Each structure stands twice: as C-alpha cells, then as structure tokens.
Amino acid sequence: LVAVLDHLGMFIAMTFERNRLRNAGLSKAEVFDPGSDDDQPHAFVFDISSPELITVATEHSSSFARAMTYLVKHGVDSRHPGCDILTVSADQSSPVDRMIELKSSGVHSRTQAMTWNEWKTAQSPDLRSHFYLYLAGNLRSDLPDARPFLRTVRDPYESMSSEEHEEETRSRKVVLYVSEFDEAEELTLGITGSGQSSSSGSTI
User: Fold this and answer.
1) 84 CB-near residues (< 8 Å, 6+ apart)
2) Count of other CB atoms within 10 angstroms of residue 63
3) Residue 19: what pLDDT?
4) Averages of pLDDT over each 10 residues, the chain, 204 residues
C-alpha cells in the first residue's frame, strides 16, 4: 500500500510541476521519461528518487546534467541528492528551478519525517531558495469525505516548526509538524470521469 501511495503521489506532484511550468510560459515542458532511449530536450521535470533514475536522466538530458553539476558544486551528493523531484530551469545562468521533497499519505497526516540527508539539503544556504516540500494527502480511495490535496511549502527549513529525533539505531530524522507551516499553497484535487486527478474541474 505504501508503494502504491508513493507512486500516486509522485504522479500528482510531477504532473503539477509540468502544468505549473506550462502555465509560466514553457508550453512544451514535459516530464522526463526514463524508459525512452531518445534525448528529451523538452523534459524539465525529473524523478530523482533513485541513483538509477539520475544516471538515465544525465545521459539523455543536457539540461538535467547541467543542473546536477550545479548541485554537486554546492555540496549535493550526485547519487543521493536529498530530494525526490528536480525541476530544471530554462535560464542558463541558474539551471535549477525547484528541488522537491515529496511526502505522500493516504490520510491527512499531522506529522511527516525527513531523513537527515534530506534535511541537510533543505537547510543548505545556497539551495534553500530552491527547496520545496510537497505534501500529497488523503490519497486513499476509501475516504469519501476527505478530498485529496497537494500542499507546497517553499523553504521548509525557514517556515516550519521542527524537532530532531535520534532513534535507537542512531539514524537521525527530522519530524515535520505540517499544520504549523507559516506559508503554504494547497491544491484540492478531485477525480474526473476518465480517472485523472483534477482541481475545480480541470486536470492538474
């Protein structure tokens, strides 16, 4: 069930990013397809949740490779960058648009957790302005009175109340109190007749 929710949350977040870029003027913006062997010059949204996906994207997108080079120069691990989605920029001087850490939940969770690697990226002085936390919630189909939503939070390190926890295994994580973000945008989703997610009758 967790894997299914994560997959659905990723689809929602990446579709939202593609449409956000198109609405901002990049009419041909697409989500990168890791299954294609062709170069993808119009790909602006990338799933970077695994080293394998990062390798494929680097091989088939020059804009992605340029963005990763920029991130590595600012201390980001090229195989484990501390976020799930990378949206690249059309601006040659600033190749990174958004670095997105995605948290998906079947319900409206009061808390979420970030790994220490994710938190290090979120608080990087050079990258904080690009870092976003996306919360996809109420994704379970058996919650008839709970509308699915996507909530976006820019620079969560600055805007949230957080508490570090050290588990018995000594792996560190950061607990996010998602109801206490100072600023966030939220998109309420629905289901169209074709089974696609939508907001106010339009596909995300």
Assistant:
1) 10, 13, 47, 48, 49, 100, 101, 102
2) 20
3) 96
4) 83 95 96 95 97 96 95 93 94 90 70 63 81 85 75 76 48 55 56 43 41
Burial class (CB in 10 A: 0-12, 13-18, 19+), 108: middle
Please name the residues in contact with 92: beta carbons below 8 A apart, sequence gap of 6 or more: none
Q: What is the pLDDT of residue 58?
A: 96
The predicted model scores a pTM of 0.76
* pLDDT at residue 115, as a whole number: 67
pLDDT value for 45: 98
What's the CA dihedral at 48, 139, 2, 159 to 10 degrees? 60
Residue indicated by tokens 């009061």 = 110
> Cβ(124)–Cβ(81) under 8 Å?
no
- Residue with the two structure tokens 């970030």: 114
Say how far residue 112 (Cα) sits from the centre of its chain: 14
For residue 187, what are the contacts with CB-CB under 8 A and spacing of at least 6? 16, 149, 150, 151, 152, 199, 204
Question: Could you tell me if 178 and 110 are in contact, meaning their C-beta atoms sit under 8 angstroms apart?
Answer: yes
CA–chain centroid gap for 101, Å, is 4
Side-by-side strand order, sheet with 202-203: 190-191, 197-199, 202-203
The owner of tokens 């967790």 is 2
- Pairwise CA distance, residues 127 & 98, whole Å: 9
